[in-house]
Amino acid sequence: MNQMSRPPAAMAIDFTSPVGEPALLAPDSVQWRVFKNPVALAVGGVAAVLLEFADARIRSGVWDHSTYKADPIGRSRRTGMAAMAGVYGPASTARRVIGGVGRMHAKVSGTTPKGEAYSALDPELLNWVYATAQYGFLKAYHRFVTPLSRDDQARFWREGEPVAALYGVTETPKSEADFLAMMEALLPRFEPHPIVTEFLDIIQSGRAAPSVPRFLHKSLARAAVSLLPPAVRMRLELGPRYDLGRRDRWMVGTMAKLADRIKDRASPAWQAAERLGLPGDTAWR
Questions:
Q1: Exposure of 70 by Cβ count < 10 A (0-12 exposed, 13-18 middle, 19+ buried)?
Q2: Residue whose C-alpha is closest to residue 84's, from 148, 37, 132
Q3: How far is residue 145's CA from residue 167's CA, in Å, rounded to a whole number?
Q4: What is the pLDDT of residues 211-261, one digit of tens each?
Q5: Dihedrals phi, psi of 163, to nearest 5 degrees
Q6: What span, in angstroms and rounded, lies between the C-alpha atoms of 152 and 34?
Q7: What is the DSSP letter of 148?
Q8: Alpha carbon 233 to chain centroid distance?
């Protein structure tokens, strides 16, 4: 899901109807399995933003043309809901929501502080943002929830292509190796920036979920940093203070595994399955 985009504020997604209308992705897909886990999405989503913010064009686009700096939590939730629409929503709803994102993209352009022009419709940026989200979610689930086989990982990358096409993505990685090759091409552009650490400070502050102890938010932030390829972490100058310790790993892994067993009847995954006449816990099987 493109972090440069802002889903319409009035967006309301009904995952229960129209009854029988399929989603863009099949119920037996790996993506249905991964996207049901809120901890994996949280950790993977933060990792994706860090990978995106490494590029000044995306960083400027988000900071200058969205509500992120004023309302980062609400902005992230709207972005997450649009991502859920692509996986679990009725296909017509997914197309409507993604179409709205595309119309917002058409309005996003400008120049970075160093004077480089950018546009949210730039295929290179669209491709990278899509790839970072896929990488973050898959890597977080694989590392902190349960290891996925090579075949399942390949399926995950492949399954997202119908959604990617609706966003205007022209090149999708077919594997982690493809993702790393895409990263290598962009790596010379990556740089540290105060916005990156400001973003991590927001995550660690616990503002997203005040009822959760603050030390858990710090562990989640460190878990996200741990997913970054070493070359990117080095470019962003995210030093030892972000190292994932043994205690952090245990806490994040415990939360992620517990979350994977909670069959939430109000979740998009459960509601989408019932819309299709399937058992609500289909994504948990």
A1: exposed
A2: 37
A3: 28
A4: 677 778 999 999 999 999 999 999 999 999 999 999 999 999 999 999 999
A5: -70, -45
A6: 11
A7: P
A8: 18
List strand residue ranges (DSSP E) for the chain, in order. 109-111, 117-119
H or E, element range at 164: helix 161-166
Single-letter code of the amino acid located at 247: R
Tokens of 204: 């660690």
Q: Check residue 8 and give left, alpha or beta (phi > 0: left; psi -120 to 50: alpha).
A: beta
Within-domain flag for 91: yes
Which residues are paired to 117 by β-bridges? 111
Per the structure, how many domains does the chain have?
1
Angle formed by the axes of helices 56-65 and 123-140, to 10°? 90
Q: Is residue 20 part of a domain?
A: no
Supply 60's token pair: 């400027």
Find residue 109's DSSP bridge partners: 119
Q: Are 86 and 163 in contact (CB under 8 A)?
A: yes
| Integer Rg of the chain from CA | 18
**Count of alpha carbons within 13 angstroms of residue 244, beta-carbon side:** 21
Question: What sign for the dihedral angle of Cα 132, 138, 143, 144?
Answer: positive
Is residue 4 in a domain?
Answer: no
Please state whether the peptide bond connecting residue 22 to the residue before it is cis, i.e. omega within 30 degrees of 0. Answer: no
Query: In angstroms, rounded to a whole number, what is the distance separating the alpha carbons of residues 61 and 120?
Result: 7
β partners of residue 118: 110
- List the one residue out of 3, 50, 4 whose CA is nearest residue 201: 50
Answer whether 0.90 is exceeded by the pTM.
yes
Q: Distance between CA atoms of 110 and 43, rounded to whole angstroms?
A: 30
Place of tokens 């989408």: 272
User: Does a structural domain hold residue 42?
Assistant: yes
Residues 265-281 pLDDT 10s? 999 999 999 999 999 99
d(CA 85, CA 20): 16
Domain extent, residue 171, equals: 31-263
